[in-house]
Design brief:
With 305 residues, the chain is an alpha/beta fold. It contains ten helices and ten strands.
């Protein structure tokens, strides 16, 4: 089936029934790949996420439904236990609402867990959504900051028709390797740190890792004469990636920086992007991205140094 039709139906329903102070947008990529899916169940997923978004914006805001094609590689799959390499359609439901408090983010997919008042919710909505997505061979994740909004992201495997109906983009045949350059990888998620480290080391780089901006600055201070490039996430505890980049620009302005983040959506994400641009950082990778994109970006940054 074609996901675009379900998104357009959902947007139409939302525009007709949601409060007029909520701006609703649809952003669908061209030539979306077909997926094997139950239309009624996927409609249930979209409706649940959109209703939650509406409830998170009592004073109004912006709701965006996105869909695009992505090809996940083995590198990405190692970072997400339920992910499989191959072509996927990625769905995003983004709001600019009140966000999910960090203290409860680990519990939102649990059965009967709800933040709504008595009689307003069963606590089964997101549990059901997660179950439907998993039954379709996909996986769901989210990024949220209290007071700044939430983005739910769903990956659904593209059906076999994509192989005969249109060409799936493939990575370049030749991926540049490093020549022993030392790269500092900064990310608060251990699986991502480890996956990036393995990929870089397999392609000729040396790697240091840090869990947040504070730890990254300690590593940088100890090895600043050897570090040739930095790959950093943005949304991290202690010190976020934008603050880290500001400090690094003061300490050593010419240090090549690659930003790799999955949270650059909504108001906060837009602010972070503008901040990175003001610092002259142009190499920004949006998770999920293939290992090849990281390797090609690093090679480009280091080529003339």
């Amino acid at each position: 089936m074609q996901i675009r039709h379900l998104i357009r139906d959902m947007v139409k329903i939302a525009r007709e029934t949601f409060p007029k102070n909520i701006q609703i947008e649809e952003v669908c990529g061209k030539d979306l790949w077909p997926v094997r899916a139950d239309a009624t169940q996927i409609q249930q997923v979209l409706l649940n996420l959109c209703v939650n978004a509406r409830d998170a914006m009592p004073a109004g805001g912006r709701l965006v439904l996105r869909a695009d094609n992505v090809v996940l590689d083995d590198h990405f799959a190692t970072m997400h236990p339920r992910a499989a390499a191959g072509p996927h359609v990625r769905l995003q439901v983004e709001d600019t609402g009140m966000g999910i408090p960090e203290s409860i983010q680990d519990h939102i997919f649990e059965s009967f867990f709800t933040t709504k008042g008595e009689g307003e919710g069963t606590g089964l909505g997101l549990t059901t959504v997660q179950g439907i997505v998993r039954d379709h061979g996909g996986f769901i994740s989210f990024a949220s900051r209290e007071g700044r909004g939430t983005t739910f992201e769903i990956h659904l495997p593209a059906g076999p028709e994509v192989q005969s109906g249109q060409e799936v983009p493939t990575p370049p045949v030749t991926i540049p390797s490093g020549r022993g350059e030392l790269v500092l990888v900064v990310d608060d998620e251990q699986d991502i740190r480890n996956a990036n480290r393995r990929v870089l080391e397999r392609h000729g780089y040396q790697v240091l890792v840090a869990r947040d901006g504070v730890e990254a600055l300690a590593q940088f201070s100890a090895h600043q004469d050897e570090i040739r490039a930095i790959v950093t996430d943005v949304m991290m505890p202690q010190m976020d990636g934008l603050t880290l980049c500001r400090v690094l620009r003061r300490l050593r302005p010419a240090t090549p920086i690659v930003v790799s983040s999955g949270g650059l959506f909504g108001k906060q994400g837009s602010e972070a992007l503008r901040g990175l641009e003001r610092l002259g950082i142009r190499h920004i990778l949006h998770k999920p991205h293939n290992a090849d994109r990281l390797l090609l970006t690093l090679a480009e940054l280091l080529r003339d140094r």
